[in-house]
Amino acid sequence: MPAVTVRNIPEKTHRALKVRAAKNGRSTEAEIRIILEEAVASRRPLKIGAELAAFGQRFGGVDLKIARDKTPAKPAPFA
């Protein structure tokens, strides 16, 4: 598992981390992990299809008339 070292944390910040960890019944290291995970976690999952549709609508949308090709696929030759 990756490790990160953070140097030169102000004493006030270090004390606050220790107090917060103690209040939550965790070690300081565990508390820092929780804080980092929450900081980088997405607030809402990215739904790429919805994002692309919204992007297209901003430019007037596109009306595609595409029919699915139901012809069976041919196996790739391995020679």
Task: Explain how this protein is built.
This protein has 79 residues and is mainly alpha-helical. Helices cover 47% and strands 0% of the residues. The chain has helices at 11-23, 28-40, 48-58. α1 (11-23) packs across α2. The longest helix is centred in the first third of the chain and has 13 residues, at 11-23. It starts with 10 loop residues before the first helix and ends in a 21-residue tail after the last helix.
Itemize the secondary structure elements and their pairings.
Blueprint: H1 11-23, H2 28-40, H3 48-58
Helix pairs in contact: 1-2
Question: In a few lines, what is going on in this structure?
Answer:
The protein is mainly alpha-helical and 79 residues long.
